[in-house]
Every structure is written in C-alpha cells, then in structure tokens.
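note to self — DONT lose this again. spent like an hour looking for the file last time. sequence + predicted structure for the chain T wanted, 177 res
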Amino acid sequence: MSWWQLVGVSLVCALVLVVLFATVIVGGLLVARDALVDDYPPAIRERYGAQSARGKRAAGVMGALNAVVFIAVPVVGLMDLRGRADGGLGFWRAFVFGALVWLALVVFDLVVLDWWLFCTVQPRFMVLPGTEGMAEYRDYGFHWRVLVPRPVPWPLLTVLGCGAVVGSVSALVEAVF
C-alpha cells in the first residue's frame, strides 16, 4: 500500500468523522441550546446561568454518540487499510492514519464549528437565551486559546495521542491475530 492510499483512506474517514461529529453537535444543540454551555466563553456562561436538565441529558447523549463515532470510524478505516496492505499495517501506518483523522476533526471543529458557525454566523440554536448580542460570541481568540493553551497545548497533543493509540491497537491486533 502506498502512502497516497493511506492518506486517501485517512481523508475519507476524516470526512465521515467530521460529518457525523457535526451532525451530533448540531442535532444536540437543536434539542437543547445549552447542551454545550460549559464550552462557551466564561462571560456567556455567567450571564446564562446553570445548564438545564434537558441540556444535561442532551450533552450526555451527544457525548455517548460521539464516543461511538470516535471508535467506529477509525475501526472501519483500519479494516479498510488492513485489506489494502501487503503484510499488515504495523504501528506507523496506523499512527499516521489516526493522527490525520483526528487532526482533521480538530481543524474542522476550530475553523468550521467554532470560528465560522459560532463566531461568524451565530445561528439561533447556538445563541443562548438572554445572551444575544454579547461581544464574546465574536471572540475568535477564545477558541484558539482553548485549542492551544499555555504552557502546554494539550488539545493539540491529542492528535499525536490518537495516532499513538490507533497505531498501538493496530500493532497489538496484528501481533495477536
């Protein structure tokens, strides 16, 4: 299997992952606008107040659905890659796959969901009642600081962590089976 095939399968899986992730996020917010209130800028959280019971339930369902998506999509992608590989994937090919898929999700979440949808478009289902017009909705820097906090940008490190987990699981499965 060539590296181009690996990148191609990774990008297809990344596309599937971001579409499913966005569907869960938007769907959950349509059910309860305050489902993700804990991820909002502090001034918005303070003005809005406590999360509703419906918001808590929606957040729980969203978390469970995303957990399934975050496991199922890489597993299906690895099965596809394994079928294309001559003699197995090993650690590094699976690492690259996992890191690329997760990197695509992180970039999509920041650029499309946070900066474009939340900060620029501001659809009604993302604006919490009583917080309309707050300047913090247009705070692009808030989302960047969440992604790359100082001194350690741990959310970005999850890209390498995902690659390491996917690579390790792939190598372990190949060693056992």
